[in-house]
Amino acid sequence: MTGTSPTTVSFVLNGKGRTSDALTKKILATAKKEGYQPNQIAVSLRTGQSKVIGLIVENMGGSFFGAVSKELESEAKKYGYRIVYCSSENNIRKGREMMEMLAHQQVDGYIITPTAGLEKDVMKLITSKKPVVLMDSYYPGLDIPYVLVDNFNGIKQGIDYLIEAGYENIGFVTVDLDLIQMKERLSGYTETLKFRNIKPDKKLVLTLQYDSTKEEMVNEITSFIKKNKNMDAIFFATNYLGIAGLQSLSNIRYKVPEDIAMISFDDHEIFSLFAPGITTIQQPTEEIARAAMNLLLTQLGKKESNLITNKIQIPANLVKRNSVKKGKG
After folding, report:
1. pLDDT band for position 38 (cuts 50, 70, 90)
2. Which has the closest alpha carbon to 68: 228, 286, 295?
């Protein structure tokens, strides 16, 4: 169609080699007119690269993972990569199925939110020389690059803020996930109280089952608040727990912050819309996504790393709204 060789056409479409401006325009115009798209399977067989990255997260529908995924896609596109999205729902069987599916698609690398029980499966990828980056959590003891927010100090910021405002009977609501980030959040709560000379009270800690329905969570949080009349503040370890908490507080007609102060880990648009505005510990999604993609691209040989470590914890941000009454004490 263009009167040139397949090699010349290939060079132009892939931005390689040198051809005249006129010939380049002719080839590109012809490709556009004919709706030409490279055969990705053939390209993969020839180059040994699929130019696809597999992303396995806890829940693609969550606000945090949605925001991170959007930024990951933007960063990947700059280097000619596409992303295949998967949700594990923190289920070992489903996580394993997603990893097998991505392996069949011969993805070039993986960004994975770890699920407890998949350590051996992830290590198989490492052994087979596949680039892997863990995001939002990591497997203690395994030498795998990871990126996550500094969960311990994120919680510490919130607890310090509550104590400095005069609150002492601070409740904590979390879930029973055996993941490092959840352990660090609970540790941040208990250790900060101890450091501030407040004895942690087990009665003020509620641990919910991860697979509970929203209705079950709301009912358990409601019962927890009713049982602890002395509780003057409540800290939710995730945004979906915080959202369930808002429903619980509404059910028992508690006003925030008049009746109880509230903070949630991980921001959500609901917290800025809900009057009077809920204070949160915000995860910097753009920074997390960029760092994870940089670590992966470095392994893929697409970027030079200037990082002194491939195990990164990014500081969280305390977003102050009006759910904490200043000078309460």
Report:
1. low
2. 286
- Looking at 3.40.50.2300, 1.10.3380.30, 3.40.50.300, 3.40.50.720, the CATH number of the domain 49-149+285-314 comes to 3.40.50.2300
pTM: 0.83
How many CB atoms neighbour CB 300 within 10 A?
Answer: 16
Q: Residue 39 has what pLDDT? A: 56
Which residues touch 75 (CB under 8 Å, ≥6 apart)?
289, 290, 293, 294
Cβ within 8 Å of residue 125, ≥6 positions away? 99, 110, 132
- Among 57-61, 210-214, 303-307, 309-313, which stretch is predicted with the lowest mean pLDDT? 303-307
Domain 151-283: top CATH class: alpha beta
User: In the numeric block, which tokens belong to residue 55?
Assistant: 């992303």
pLDDT digits (tens, 9 = 90+) for 146-170: 999 999 999 999 999 999 999 999 9
Residue 183: exposed, middle, or buried by beta-carbon count in 10 A (0-12, 13-18, 19+)? middle
Cα 228-185-277 angle, rounded to 5 deg = 65
For the chain, what are the domain ranges? 6-37, 49-149+285-314, 151-283
What tokens were used for 223? 């019962």
Average the pLDDT over 57-66 and give the result: 84
